[in-house]
Design a protein that fits this description.
binds magnesium ion; 2 domains; 9 helices; Rossmann fold; six-stranded parallel beta sheet; alpha/beta
């Protein structure tokens, strides 16, 4: 069972510093591949290291290759490569088209927005600045591991409704299991990547479009009397 007892102290500390209005709807959004073009940024980074991302499946491991030889980067080397990428390029990622407008409109009509991202803690502030610079000035929580525990904590602070967006099915499964009333949106900005995976079975919708996602959330809010 997922509970706040599973929260890392560093994550709990960030969650406790949020000021939330219990009466307002809460939108909890992932950043990479939802608010920020993670794959596009990673491709640019890999190019500079004579590597490329061969999008054969919904995974990084096994799909990062050396440019000239097409040799696959070994699975055990991928975490270090990603750490280097986050250290070098977190501040450079471009916002997903339409994300800032959709969230600004939802914020204006009363929703609270929290960015719940598995960015390394050291890059939390760079990520926050990068998002704010592109019209996405919302609190950023640098999470670790699955997202169910953090969403459980947030759901205890507010009455809802709650919306959760993520590109990774196991995060959606974790949230659906931890807090069933949360509406889960399986959002994958990069259409090439979206084609490689079925909609997460615990999600209400799969989307690659912020206008479409905005319309879904608006409609849900209206139906719930918000
Ligand atoms: Mg993501």
């Amino acid at each position: 069972m997922s509970s706040i007892a599973n929260l890392e102290p560093l994550v709990l500390e960030q969650l406790q510093s949020l000021s939330l209005d219990p009466a307002r709807p809460l939108i909890i959004s992932d950043a990479d591949e939802v608010l920020l073009k993670f794959v596009a940024g990673l491709e640019t980074y890999l190019q500079g290291r004579d590597m490329w991302l061969d999008l054969q499946s919904f995974a990084l491991s096994g799909n990062i290759k050396r440019k000239n030889t097409n040799e696959i980067i070994a699975t055990e080397e991928v975490p270090d490569l990603l750490s280097d990428f986050f250290a070098a390029a977190t501040g450079d990622l471009e916002a997903v088209t339409g994300a800032a407008d959709a969230l600004a409109a939802l914020h204006k009509r009363g929703a609270q927005i929290i960015v719940l991202t598995n960015v390394p803690h050291a890059q939390r502030h760079v990520r926050q600045e990068c998002l704010a610079r592109q019209g996405l000035d919302y609190p950023v929580i640098a999470n670790q591991g699955l997202k169910g525990p953090a969403v459980t904590y947030l759901a205890q602070q507010c009455e809802g409704p709650f919306f959760f967006l993520d590109d990774i099915p196991h995060n959606i499964a974790s949230v659906a299991k931890a807090h069933a009333p949360t509406k889960c949106i399986h959002f994958i900005a990069d259409k090439r990547l979206a084609q490689l995976i079925d909609p997460a079975k615990d999600s209400q919708i799969q989307s690659s479009s912020w206008p479409h996602t905005h319309a879904y959330i608006e409609n849900e809010l209206a139906q719930l009397g918000h």
